[in-house]
Amino acid sequence: MKIAFKTLGCRVNLYETDALASRFKNAGYELVDFKDEADIYVVNTCTVTNQSDQKCRQTLHQIRSKHHNALIVATGCMVNNHKQQLTDSQLLDYAIDNEHKYALFDIIDGHFKDFKIEPESFEKDLFSYTAASDTFHTRSLIKIHDGCNNFCSYCIIPSVRGRAVSRSDKDIYENIKEVIRYGFKEIVLTGVNMGRYKHENTDFEMLVRNILYIEGDFRLRISSIEPDNFSDSFIELFKNKKLAPHMHICLQSGSDNILQQMHRHYSYEEFALICKRIRNVIPDFNITTDLIVGFPGETEQDFKESVKACKQLSFSHIHTFKYSVRTGTKAATMPNQIPEKTKNERSAAIRQISAENKIAYYKQMIGKRQRMLIERVVNGNALGYGENYIPLRLKTKDIKKNTFADVIVKDIINKGDESELWAEII
Question: Which fold has domain 369-425?
Fold first, then answer.
């Protein structure tokens, strides 16, 4: 049987897809590209914005119109948000929510063995995924946390992912040891709000510290994280060569007025101080961020403060979102909704700053050493990322995928949004 996966949304979804796909492959199913002919199509959905919902619906429509006899399964956050609507659409055969996503293999495998199992017959569980031995990525994503208790005024995630829950630290350590045995060289911690990780007596800082003690030639990367008040001892952990000097810390706005309306629990000054403290310890630390433009009531002055923040803090990448109304959130009922034209203009301005920041950061990295993880080898060029999460290209004949190479950064290629850096072996 041929099965194809499509993942939309966050790294948590990517982790879950990797684990599910690996289980299918180990059971004898053939993984094929989503564009190819398959017996089963699985769409791991996102519902964080209206655009996400629209993209999910379009994907399901396209599959159904092209592959009439295929089994179509939707899972993920859009199912939690619009399950009845999706079921009534007749675009799919199964709609499986996040709490039962881990059981997707048993549900689909049972379908083709003529014993249909309803998703709700399984217990709810957010962490019962087997370690992925063969994934769509060179890096191994490790989910440590799910759900959120922050209730930002624009965000629907607490409704679709539920309240915050942390995975057992012992399960995390075993998962990491297992993927290291499989040969993975980079471990990426992911979760909905993982900075708030807490299992029994283990908090996020202790978890990271303990992971760094695990034996093996690997590096650890922290993905998207909220700007909690990182302790000095946590920042000091980045002096460990195993811990990659890069974090995606979510700002959302440079205006204190908008941050307050968003129900974010920090001021811009507090966020900026976190960045300063990190760079005082690791000067070339790479900080990337999320920013929302066009939040209800965002004035020109508010937006100018976001522009100023993006320039001052020198984010090497800014993932820019246009505010999207999500029914059931506080922001959906706020007055002074911003016109789409204004959102587009502000989004374009931030993207331009992001592109300029990226080039400035890349120039800063020229002449510096990086430990490059080789992810692909194409036509004599090895492609991959350094520990600072900068894309590197290396001319080579003998190097293999999924190995480390110590390199010197030499020059920028294609000075635009898709820039990368030439490197040479030391």
Answer: OB fold (Dihydrolipoamide Acetyltransferase, E2P) (2.40.50)
pTM for the whole structure: 0.92
378/401 Cα distance (integer angstroms): 10
What tokens does 26 get? 């180990």
Strand ranges for 259-417 from DSSP E = 286-293, 318-322, 369-378, 381-385, 391-395, 404-413
Give residue 415's pLDDT.
63
Q: What is the pLDDT of residues 13-32, one digit of tens each?
A: 999 999 999 999 999 999 99
pLDDT in tens, 104-120: 999 999 999 988 888 99
Domain with CATH 3.40.50.12160 in the chain: 2-121
Domain covering 140-364: architecture: Alpha-Beta Horseshoe (3.80)
**Do strands 202-203 and 198-199 pair parallel, antiparallel, or not at all (unpaired)?**
antiparallel
Q: Strands across the sheet with 94-96, in order?
A: 30-31, 2-7, 40-45, 71-76, 94-96
Pairwise CA distance, residues 407 & 100, whole Å: 44
Closest residue by Cα to residue 145 from 129, 161, 166, 124: 166
Angle between helices 169-182 and 204-212 (to 10 degrees): 30
